[in-house]
Amino acid sequence: MNIIITGTSRGIGFELTKQALHAGHRVLATVRSLASAHQIVSLKEMSPNLHVIEVDVADNSAPNAISAAAATLPHVDILINNAGIYCEEDSVDDFMNSFRVNSVAPFFITSALLSQLKKSNQPKVVQITSLMGSIADNTSGGSYSYRASKAALNMINKSLAIDTPWLTTIVVHPGWVQTEMGGPQAPTPVEESAKGIWHVINNLQHKDSGAFFDFEGDRLPW
Ligand SMILES: NC(=O)c1ccc[n+]([C@@H]2O[C@H](COP(=O)([O-])OP(=O)(O)OC[C@H]3O[C@@H](n4cnc5c(N)ncnc54)[C@H](OP(=O)(O)O)[C@@H]3O)[C@@H](O)[C@H]2O)c1
């Protein structure tokens, strides 16, 4: 399969890429800066099926840049919008940056890739969201910009699922994961999270489009 994954310099995006290559797929991986993406650059040296492009998903040019790179593939089977940020503070700039990266970018990147996704027999889009974007699950408050940006992503994905009936598009919470964002105290190793996400993707059915899953395949409350 031909797979596009954003935000692959480290964390969940890097591990999703590694596991996809191991399963024999071709991956177009995006990183914000090749100069600091040492892990993926090393992986590329060993992986003929890995193509890496430099894209800041917050740039207006990002959707077209990814779509242009994807045009070299016969079709796109899976898009994973993984790149994300967590802002500790909730200034106006933090809100704008969070929405830009976590909500707006996945929408426009998905939109730019629809024609290449449509050429696949079973096209799938996976938006990496967070349980923190669940209004029903919010019992502790705080994290305004992050929570709001992921809630927006959940809503965007639901509309995409309705408006694009040939596509299977879902939001997935990866768990609380041991990455730079999740911190060392997180209970879930990154390998386990990525393995779970791949299991969810591989077992997806078209009727699941628009749904909110976690990495163990359980449905989450909105
Ligand atoms: N870790 C958790 O516990 C947890 C829980 C729920 C949801 N999530 C979600 O899971 C996804 C991955 O998180 P993670 O834990 O792997 O975080 P991470 O270790 O902080 O990695 C984030 C990735 O996103 C990339 N990124 C950030 N802003 C970008 C931009 N403007 N353009 C391109 N790439 C950008 C980063 O690239 P750089 O190296 O260039 O910064 C990095 O590759 C995120 O969407 C996050 O919200 C994580």
Written overview of the protein:
The protein has 222 residues and is of the alpha/beta class. Helix content is 41%, strand content 15%. The protein has helices spanning 11-22, 38-46, 62-70, 92-118, 144-163, 190-202, and strands spanning 2-5, 26-31, 50-54, 78-81, 124-128, 168-173, 212-214. A seven-stranded parallel β-sheet has the order 3-2-1-4-5-6-7, sandwiched between helices. The longest helix is centred in the middle third of the chain and has 27 residues, at 92-118. The protein is globular. The protein binds NADP nicotinamide-adenine-dinucleotide phosphate. NADP nicotinamide-adenine-dinucleotide phosphate binds at residues 7, 9-13, 32-33, 56-58, 82-85, 101, 128, 130, 173-174, 176-177, 179-182, 186.
In short:
This protein is α/β, with parallel strands linked by helices and 222 residues long.
Provide the descriptors you would attach to this structure in a database record.
222 residues, alpha/beta, seven-stranded parallel β-sheet, 6 helices, 7 strands, 41% helix, globular, binds NADP nicotinamide-adenine-dinucleotide phosphate
Shape: globular
Estimate what percentage of residues fall within beta strands: 5-15%
How many runs of DSSP E, i.e. beta strands?
7
Mean pLDDT rating: 98
Which strand order does the major sheet show? 3-2-1-4-5-6-7
> What gap, in angstroms, lies between the N and C termini?
31 Å
